Amino acid sequence: MEKILTKNFELKNSHTVEVYESTGGYRSLKKLFAMQPNDVIEEVKKSGLRGRGGAGFPTGMKWSFVPQNIPKPKYLCVNADESEPGTFKDRYIMELDPHRMIEGIIICSYAIRANTAYIYIRGEFVFPKQRIDAALAEAYKKGYLGKNILGSGYDLEVYVHRGAGAYICGEETALMESLEGKRGWPRLKPPFPAVVGLFGCPTVINNVETVSALPYIMENGADAYKKFGTEKSPGTKMFSVSGHVNKPGNYELPLGYPLKKLIYEDCGGMKDGKALKAVIPGGSSVPVLTAAEAEEATLDYEGLQAKGSMLGSGGVIVMDETTDMVKALTNLAHFYSHESCGQCSPCREGTGWSHKILKRIVAGEGRQGDLDQLLAIADNMMGKTICVLADALAMPIQSYLKKFRKEFESYLCQP
Amino acid sequence: MAFEFTAENKKKFEEVVKRYPQRRAAMLPTLWLAQEQHGWISPEVMEYVAKLLELTPAKVYEVVTFYTMFNLKPVGEYHFQVCRTLSCQLCGAEGITEHLKKKLEVPLGGTSADGKYSLSEVECLGSCGTGPMLQLNDEYHENLTAEKLDALIGSLK
User: Fold this and answer.
1) How far apart (Å, rounded) are the C-alpha atoms in residues A206 and A184?
2) Minimal CA–CA distance to A400: which of A338, A350, A300, A327?
3) Does A54 lie at the interface with B, CB-CB under 8 angstroms?
4) Contact residues on chain A for B128, CB-CB shorter than 8 A
5) Which of B59, B69, B86 lies nearest to residue A85, judging by beta carbons?
6) CA B17, B22, B27, B32 torsion-angle sign
7) What's the confidence (pLDDT) of residue A1?
8) Confidence band (pLDDT; 50, 70, 90) for B146?
9) Per-residue pLDDT averaged across B92-104, rounded?
């Protein structure tokens, strides 16, 4: 299959502007500046591109919510705060093909009429940040950024903003709070960021992978992009595979690809020939699939929804028959309880209590009633908070307990 | 002891502030500059940053304590941060931490008496396909084994 996002990954010095240009990079800009911004938005809408950060919101539609009849500046924030456990795709785009992301940033900024874009990158990504800093310097030097880009009369400044270790800052409103110099506390919506976003101005927040798909769409048109994937989930997506497979790593696949094929063919099958037990298909926050469910699932928004899970960020965590599901869930409860920002009680308390109960169960001191207690806590977290971090633990709790309940019961003290 | 930016960092700070329409937005970049210079964020550093950003020290304190990467106390010259989240755990992260505890003779969350090594466990570092892994100061070390760890520690001495 033709690759869109990863096509340059194997090339030597793929991160440099020379190599990027030699593969057709920045060529879409000429076409871009000949178009009206609204037409760019329409083209992206037509492509069916959906946000690749996890929520899957249609990208063109998100842009179209930015009001153009008010005098405030508009902003683009690129979400490079990749932190969803199991996900490591944006990091590779930034390390191996940063110019593709920068070209995408120019396209999006022009479409929403923003003259400033911020790349919010997680603090731990020191090497990817170095690659972006260098790529931005190259792009400025070549006249792709700055004042009057390629004689178009359009100006764009791009800055990198380094986070400092907080999963929650990948949530778009927390990201803006963080960028404004505050704690990463998610904001109530509405108002939505497209209207009242960064510094109180209209703002679009797009994931690294999402913007990196834009140069292809601009260059080849929406119809070419729609040739990949399914009707409702067009295009390609990067899947980060980790856990018990022979060849973990990033795989760019057309949406609708069978999960079974990804595990057994692309990833070389299960490590040490062990049997598959469970798969988390879209980052640690989504409901887990049993082996039987996973073997029937297709990797697209609708296919995974039909199996009771979600495409999420595309972080595929594969677990073999030796995996202790109680320990796996406890690990995740530790994560979410550590990362809860503490703003909403159901999340702050719920993630903490869940973790404490699970630790007790793992230690062999679980009581009868603990499993129902966990489910009651999950019910009190789900959909009851400002952002979805609470849901991101509630969904694993509910699905692990539903699908692997016997394993949890075997840990409990007998009555 | 009062803290102040070096002349070079003062210049960097002035550049950083210009990127944002609001001064407060320079908070994280300013704290990063301060931590690079001082090694950790002391109460004096917070007061200094507050003055630069025209905020009360409490506004800086609430930020410093929210993010995990700002050190609230000095850390060792070499800071080992082992990823403990699910994918790395599935691939043996616990063994990596245990091995480091023994080799470095440092408890989890602690620093060696000579100030050379610190050891912590951290949440997902976005390197799940190459676990188990750790971050040593600014660098990622991936696909770890006991042998690789020993070689890494050996290279530091």
Assistant:
1) 17
2) A327
3) no
4) 85-88, 240, 242-243, 248, 315, 317
5) B86
6) negative
7) 79
8) very high
9) 96
Mean pLDDT, residues A228-253: 97
Query: What was the ipTM of the complex prediction?
Result: 0.97
Taking a C-beta distance cutoff of 8 angstroms, is the pair A241, A286 a contact? Answer: no
Does pLDDT of A252 surpass 90? yes
CB within 8 Å of B12: residues ≥ 6 apart: B33
Q: Using a cut of 0.90, tell me whether the model's pTM lies above it.
A: yes
* Proportion of chain B above pLDDT 70, given as a percent: 99
What 3-state class would DSSP assign to A244? Answer: coil
- Is the pLDDT at A250 greater than 90? The verdict is yes
Residue A81 forms contact with B (CB below 8 Å)? no
* B62, B84, B126 member nearest A122 (Cβ): B126
Q: A91 at the B interface (CB within 8 A)?
A: yes
For residue A328, list chain B residues with Cβ-Cβ distance below 8 A.
86, 89-90
Instruction: Tell me the torsion sign for CA atoms B76, B77, B81, B82.
Output: negative
**Alpha-carbon span A298 to A311, nearest angstrom:** 10
Q: Which two tokens stand for residue A220?
A: 């080849």
Which residues on B lie below 8 Å from A84 (Cβ)? 124
Q: Is A283 on the interface with B (CB under 8 A)?
A: no
Q: At what angle do helices B27-38 and B7-17 cross, to 10 degrees?
A: 170
DSSP state string for B41-70:
--HHHHHHHHHHHT--HHHHHHHHTTSTTS
What's the average model confidence in pLDDT over A206-226?
98
DSSP A254-314: ETTEEHHHIIIIIT-SBGGGPPEEEEE-SSTTSPPEEHHHHHH-EESHHHHHHTT---TT-
Does a cis peptide bond (omega within 30 degrees of 0) precede residue A191?
yes
Q: Taking CB atoms and an 8 Å limit, are B129 and A88 in contact across chains?
A: yes
